[in-house]
Amino acid sequence: MTNLDERTTDDEEQKEGVAGFMQGARKKALSNVEHVAEGTAAGTLPEGKLFDIATTIGDKRLEDLTVEDTTCGYCAVGCRFDVYTDGDEVLATRPTEPEKSPVNGISTCVKGKFTYDFVDSEGRLTTPLVRDENGEFREASWDEAYERVVEGFQDIKEEYGGSAMSMIASSKATNEENYLMGKFARQVLGTNTVDNCNRLCHSSTVAGLARTYGYGAASVSTEDFEQADAIFLTGSNTTEAHPVLATRIKQHVKDGKELVVFDPREVQIAEYATQYTEVRPGFDQVWINGLVRYIIENDLYDEEFVEERTRGIDQVREAVQEFTPDYVEEVTGVTPEELKSAAETITSNDRVVFGWTLGLTEHSHGTENIMAMANLAAITGNLGKPGTGVSPFRGQNNVQGGGGDMGPLPDNFPGYQSITDEENRKKFEEAWDCEIDPEPGFYTTEMFLAANEDELQGMYCIGENPSLSEPGSNHASEVLEEMEFLVVQDLFLNDTAKYADVVLPACSFLEKTGTFTNTDRRVQMVKQVIDPKGDSKTDWEILQDLANRMGREWDYDNTAEIMEEMRQLTPIYGGITQERVEEEGGLQWPCYDLDHPGTERLYTEEFNTEDGLAHLQAVGYNEPGELPDEDYPLSLTTGRVLYQYHTGTMTHPEEGIQGYNDRDFVEINPEDAADYGIEDGDLVTLESRRGEITVPAQVTARIGSGTVFAPIHFAETCVNKLTDSERLDPHARTPEFKVSAVRVTPVEGEPDVDFETREPVSGDD
User: Residues in domain 4Fe-4S Mo/W bis-MGD-type (predicted)?
Assistant: First the structure.
């Protein structure tokens, strides 16, 4: 039996791992007296009696805790779980009742289960900050901070007009808060230049699917993955970016179903695939068009579905003629045998779901990639029936709802109602009592280009970190530094906030009530489980305070009232109220009225187009914005890792998580590593035409020769120094994150890290 001193030592060692959060929580929950009592009892009482005592003590402790169900604030899978708190700290989480957790059931990922140290992090903002006459931040009251914000915004409006203002909304915030962000931009600031992180990820999905099917969203429910005979994934590191969804897919394969994966990296989900095909990054529409051509030429397409439910097949047939198997292999590396195998897997199964993430969208031609994929799903008849459909996996917890549905966009009101439509504009002008410019504003990346041309002088940034997340981040930081007036509203003094004139402390999702919409259009409740930290406020309260100080009369008492206003203006959310969401365990849009049950699966009878048909799009050949050459011979692609999240605001404060992955790195193929004299763990310089970074190398065959991969999570590295902010998708204005021409050179010195143990090997701390 382990004595108390030995047990304490073991506990301290355990805190090095992911279980550290739970170990720390147990330490905080138990007093020293209880530890001693349990140690003594363990040596003197019968085993049965110990169980009785443990149950009694456990029940008593539970009586002292608060338990509330909520929706996860990490990715957009939409996991729900119970959160256990003592009123101040998150002590534990566990999956809630199955009827309240339709997506995840009994599962949660490592971040959703353990990673909540950020809530009480030492760096958490708990009071407003204003910049003093010496250029330094000092703490301020809310009244003083509000006065500074109102004065700054009004000065810009008076001198340059409302169109000189810009706003970046937050896909971390609730639907209700994002609705107010769009309203605040147009009604209070007088600008259409409002956008969000959706521009940097899935806006090409929205554009491509809207053109083809009518809705720019997933057509499936999560259950369709289990009902499918085959799943086709591309550009998705599912296991690391959407772990719970990946678990369901893996189980699907273990149950005897098929999985096809096309990707530049042999990501972990590919280990479960019945076919994995390595592709060169940046040419996805080539191999997708090759699949479409093979299927059409060999009469493998669903002729009845195409005839009755689509239009444009003749144009597509003509457009794909150049994408022969030999041409596809020459451009993408996909062999004729691999192309044939994938095509026959798709067409020999009755029910197929097509899934993707940013590997397909973050390109200067991402919209064409999505339209090609939409063509593939349509010509094979894999839409509108159980076990079929398209599913773009969304990354941020509320990027579907807050980033798109709620309309904090330069060209759309809530529910994707175009601002250029006069009737839409009139409806919102009457509801919001303001005039709205019929011209769309700037998209996110365009904001930074426009600021360079003195077209924007002010920015209000909520819950985003463009200093790190924008492509060509050196340029973004320069723009932020020169911005005439910048307000940042966030949990931490992040890299963007360092340039601000005023910083407003916001609340995390654990400190607020509202709704999130997940990746399959499911609106779910978010509930406050702890009190706001310090003097921080929820985003909606801050927006209301500012609106009223700028001459408006907002009088919302809670987010349910905001949801009520939003649904009356937004047809696809017309039947969704917080009361219904709570009672029914979530509702999927479109949900048109209070008697509508919601929509589990889109396009069962018709598409959301004027004629009810899917409009197939003729997609040709597009090269990446930048190709490797003699000076920059490698292609860099970027992405996420399991143990971090985006720019690290929520994960970096977690000791256990950091123990697994505390820095960026670059994956390089063994052949390339040998050519450049690089060994595993060596420090290397990665350089593009826009900047350079220094990171340790991870030599691995999971990445193909000629391509390198780097994650995006650390400010110290800031991989987006290397990416391009100027070559944008012509339809969605998405940047080219996934292909940048780079060169790699070893840095003199000893290897920096052993990638098997993740421990430093140089002897340095």
Answer: 65-123
CA distances from 470 to 134, 464, 617 (A): 29, 10, 30
Of the candidates 377, 463, 456, 347, the one whose C-alpha atom is nearest the C-alpha of residue 410 is 456
* The pLDDT value given to residue 570: 97
**pLDDT per position as a tens digit, 227-248:** 999 999 999 988 888 888 999 8
- The first and second tokens of residue 652, run together, are 């970096």
Token code pair at residue 262:
């096309």
| pLDDT at 331 (0 to 100) | 96
| CB distance 209 to 330 below 8 Å | no
Domains and CATH numbers, the chain: 4-120 (2.20.25.90), 129-197+399-588 (3.40.50.740), 203-392 (3.40.228.10), 634-760 (2.40.40.20)
Q: Each residue of 693-716: b (16+ CB within 10 Å) or e?
A: bbbbbbbbebbbebbbbbbbbbbe
Q: What is the mean pLDDT of residues 37-46?
A: 40
| Burial (Cβ within 10 Å: 0-12, 13-18, ≥19) of residue 418 | middle
Compute φ and ψ for 356, nearest 5 degrees: -155, 165
**CA nearest neighbour of 177 among 472, 526, 410:** 526
3-state secondary structure of 658: helix
The Cα 340–Cα 583 span in angstroms is 48
CA distance 264 to 147: 51
Distance between CA 30 and CA 53 in Å, rounded?
Answer: 15
Q: Is the pTM of this model over 0.90?
A: no
Reported as a single tens digit per residue, the pLDDT across 537-577 is: 999 999 999 999 999 999 999 999 999 999 999 999 999 99
DSSP secondary structure of 26-87: HHHHS-HHHHHHHHHHHHHS-HHHHHHHHHHHHHHHHHTSEEEEEE-SSSTT--EEEEEESS
Q: Of 626 and 329, which is predicted with more confidence?
A: 329
